[in-house]
């Protein structure tokens, strides 16, 4: 469970948001929406402890978080294959039994993310969508209880987008995985999430997904 | 050539230097720190000159200077790019200091040449022992931190997201980098130690696609470079550094061509 009370963040003199009050329950599939620069990425970074808050309180139950960041610097020369990239997130082990388990886990996750055929391709040469799938697969590796997707579907074609969202939905339903989905996509918000957190006027509104309108994705500032 | 004791010592020392440089190099390249390793070797030059001036060994002076500056870099916050500009300003200062220290210390200029360009005859048995201990220490650190270091070096954001202490890892890495620069400079010289710290790993990046394989190829290429270099330097009496850098540069372009060939086949 995640609970924020009067959470405020400024970078120096620049106020990003103030007095956020919200609660995200275990097993929820929630979207986080709002215009560019409204503080979505900053908020999830604070949730993960990668960025500090300015004031207010924030309780995040201690659990594994999988994060698929919005930006990643993988250039054309990036050497690791897709499988080796995913494997970075494995813990070191001497135990042959654990290695066996790890290998099985990798195989399953690559199948689920449709990466099996591509596993030996250098990640630098993969397409934008293939990269996103690899990022997701890597984040799923340590079996997180909370999954944060930061615009992870933005560069995907419709079919792959749905495949990935279906997979995330399946994990959400089967294992009560909490999903925080940052997006600028109206259709996906409507189709997959039950509730939305909307950044507006430097604060956050909690909405039922039925109240989410197309207009909310069109406004600026 | 092994009937000469100095050649035995040079051989042992450069074997360990090559192993550490090849290993550390994979992480230098994946962390985009080629530039920093270049600067650290210039700082190392100033450190060695300082060592001569105050009467401690050049190696100790080098370690002192590179360690302090790498920890300083590690505790600087901010974007890498912003860091690069300040690093290069600092490095000019250190080259100047190095030259000053040398001229103050009234040592013969052959000493300076050795530090800058490296030498295979300069190494004594106790120095080889020091190098070995330092090299083994670096390798040991890498064995302990291998997994998290690899994660952080090949995917910094992913490592942060999964909760690794990336700041600490970065400082640990910079310490091993400082040590590798200092020990590598004893044979290949501070001017070219970054050759061993970057080229073999950059080549490996073009031909293999996993961290352990990159380490194998990188260590292999840097071993081949120093062994061939030592042998040719011995029979021709030309500087060892010339042969090492020529070999590594050829290997690099070989690797690059292989990669391009593979892309079209
Ligand atoms: N480290 C930082 N230092 C200073 N300002 C920052 C920093 N990180 C973000 N900001 C500022 O905070 C604001 C919110 O940024 P953030 O990335 O959270 O927006 P976002 O809602 O994720 O936008 P987008 O939809 O474009 O991804 C922006 O104005 C940005 O410039
Ligand atoms: Mg963002």
Automatic annotation (TrEMBL), chain A:
PROSITE patterns hit by this protein: ABC_TRANSPORTER_2
Top-level division of the source organism's lineage: Bacteria
The question of whether Nucleotide-binding is a record keyword is answered with: yes
> What GO molecular functions are on record for this protein?
ATP binding
InterPro entries (UniProt xref):
AAA+_ATPase (IPR003593), ABC_transporter-like_ATP-bd (IPR003439), Metal_Ion_Import_ABC (IPR050153), P-loop_NTPase (IPR027417)
Record-stated family: Belongs to the ABC transporter superfamily.
Entry keywords, A to Z: ATP-binding, Nucleotide-binding, Transport
Per the record's keyword annotation, is Transport included, yes or no? yes
| Name of this protein | ATP-binding cassette domain-containing protein
Q: Where is the ABC transporter domain?
A: 2-219
Q: What is the lineage of its organism?
A: Bacteria, Bacillati, Bacillota, Bacilli, Lactobacillales
Automatic annotation (TrEMBL), chain B:
Q: Which domain of life is it from?
A: Bacteria
**Transmembrane region(s):** 6-29, 50-73, 85-104, 131-149, 169-202, 214-234, 240-258
SUPFAM superfamilies reported for this sequence: ABC transporter involved in vitamin B12 uptake, BtuC (SSF81345)
Compartments annotated for it: namely: Cell membrane; Membrane
* Keywords per UniProt: Membrane, Transmembrane, Transmembrane helix, Transport
Q: Which residues form the signal peptide?
A: none
This protein's major location comes to membrane
Topology in the membrane? Multi-pass membrane protein
Q: Could you say which protein family the record assigns here?
A: Belongs to the ABC-3 integral membrane protein family.
| Designated name of the protein | Metal ABC transporter permease
UniProt source species? Companilactobacillus huachuanensis
């Amino acid at each position: 469970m995640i609970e924020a009370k009067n959470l405020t963040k400024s970078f120096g003199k620049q106020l990003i948001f103030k007095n956020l009050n919200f609660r995200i329950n275990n097993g929820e599939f929630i979207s986080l929406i709002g215009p560019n620069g409204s503080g979505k990425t900053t908020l999830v970074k604070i949730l993960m402890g990668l960025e500090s808050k300015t004031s207010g309180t924030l309780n995040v139950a201690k659990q594994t978080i999988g994060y698929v960041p919005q930006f990643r610097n993988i250039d054309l020369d990036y050497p690791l294959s897709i499988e080796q990239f995913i494997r970075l997130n494995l813990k070191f082990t001497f135990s042959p039994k654990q290695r066996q388990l790890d290998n099985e886990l990798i195989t399953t996750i690559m199948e689920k993310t449709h990466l099996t055929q591509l596993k030996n391709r250098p990640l630098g040469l993969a397409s934008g969508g293939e990269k996103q799938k690899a990022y997701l697969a890597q984040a799923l590796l340590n079996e997180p209880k909370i999954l944060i997707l930061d615009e992870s579907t933005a560069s995907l074609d419709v079919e792959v987008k749905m495949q990935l969202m279906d997979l995330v939905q399946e994990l959400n339903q089967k294992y009560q995985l909490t999903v925080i989905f940052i997006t600028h996509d109206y259709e996906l918000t409507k189709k997959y999430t039950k509730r939305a957190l909307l950044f507006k006027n430097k604060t956050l509104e909690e909405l039922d997904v039925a109240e989410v309108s197309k207009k909310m994705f069109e406004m600026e500032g | 050539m092994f009937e000469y004791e100095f050649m035995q010592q040079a051989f042992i020392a450069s074997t360990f230097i090559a192993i550490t440089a090849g290993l550390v190099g994979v992480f230098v390249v994946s962390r985009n720190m080629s530039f920093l390793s270049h600067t650290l070797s210039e700082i190392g030059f100033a450190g060695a000159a300082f060592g001569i001036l105050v009467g401690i060994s050049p190696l100790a002076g080098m370690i002192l200077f590179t360690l302090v500056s790498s920890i300083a870099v590690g505790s600087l916050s901010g974007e890498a790019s912003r860091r690069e500009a300040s690093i290069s300003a600092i490095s000019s200062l250190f080259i100047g200091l190095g030259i000053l220290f040398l001229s103050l210390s009234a040592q013969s200029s052959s000493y300076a040449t050795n530090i800058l360009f490296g030498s295979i005859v300069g190494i004594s048995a106790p120095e080889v022992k020091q190098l070995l201990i330092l090299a083994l220490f670096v390798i040991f650190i890498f064995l302990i931190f291998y997994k998290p270091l690899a994660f952080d070096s090949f995917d910094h954001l992913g490592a942060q997201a999964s909760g690794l202490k990336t700041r600490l890892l970065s400082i640990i890495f910079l310490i091993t980098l400082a040590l590798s620069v200092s020990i590598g400079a004893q044979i290949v010289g501070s001017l070219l130690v970054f050759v061993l710290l970057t080229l073999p790993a950059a080549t490996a990046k073009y031909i293999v696609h996993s961290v352990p394989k990159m380490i194998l190829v990188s260590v292999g290429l840097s071993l081949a470079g120093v062994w061939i270099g030592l042998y040719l330097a011995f029979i021709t009496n030309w500087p060892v550094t010339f042969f090492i850098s020529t070999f590594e540069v050829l290997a690099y372009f070989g690797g690059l061509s292989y990669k391009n060939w593979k892309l079209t086949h």
